[in-house]
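Let us work through a complete example step by step.
Step 1: write down the sequence.
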Amino acid sequence: MVLNEIKIEGFTVSDKYKPFIVAEMSGNHNQSLEKALEIVDAAAEAGASGLKIQTYTADTMTIPHNKGLFYIDDPKSLWHGKTLFDLYQIAYTPWEWHQPIFERARKKGLIPFSTPFDSSSVDFLEGLDIPVYKIASFENKDWPLLKKVASTGKPIIMSTGASNLSDIAESVAILSEAGCDQLILLKCTSTYPASPENTNLLTIPHMREMFNCHIGLSDHTGGIGAAVASVALGARVIEKHFTISRTEGGVDSAFSIEPDELRALVVESERAFKALGSIRYDILKDEEASLRFKRSIYVVQDIRKGEKFTSKNVRIIRPGDGLEPKYYDRILGKAASSDFERGTPLTWENI
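Step 2: predict the structure and record it as tokens.
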């Protein structure tokens, strides 16, 4: 199956190109524009291709309320003890920061974009002319939002966390009906952090087959192992939350990678992509010089003309310019055609 290439500014998402590595800033700026710009610089220096933020305010996400599900009472949650409104007030990226963040990103060679969470944020981002939109897992069933984003005509990257196959199919259909013809789906596990056991990367090729589109990974596991492995299964976009240092805190710092890890992800994902190659069983041109190190049949004791070959005077050893080992049993007991010194590779002319 050959999928259409998707152009995102200067990057092409395709089976022919290395993965698009996205550094997700989220709320790791800790409400400091200076820190946000430092994160941009660090992502660029580490070699990321894209820089993503999120566009919302606490008021566009929820209401101030501390009862029921508005209050995070799960003791295992990173945000235990906060209300949703309090969390989003801490985590949001002020809208007046978007332009300087995007300008810094472009200056550093990154492709900047964002995740909108309502209609007003889409209108705002259209004013900044972003090249691609991201739909978050928790918004992938918000049909009015999907229709609004699709109406822009821009490519869309949509996460599929906390969704079953029917949910994804419905959302893909809504996007398509609203005009989206450039869609990338991200395999995602919506736990923070996610465990390797719950990542289920084998879903990636199945999702590609089901929806006939490019697939990526929104990865919340620690380290880069899952992300690199995903490349071998077809992931062509990888999104990881990013921070300069987890010790600085930040709402997503616990499952964010640091600059050295991002740099390793960029290098190793490209290495994994190159290693995919194609289905080949022939001897590569670069392997030809190594054929000498295969075993072959050699004379290991001086032999006189007419003397028979035995297990004592011929052996299967390296290097590989004699008869192949598969002929060993056939030549035992045959007579030598002339005298041979120890170290002579055996050929059919010698028999």
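Step 3: interpret the result. The chain has a mean pLDDT of 96.
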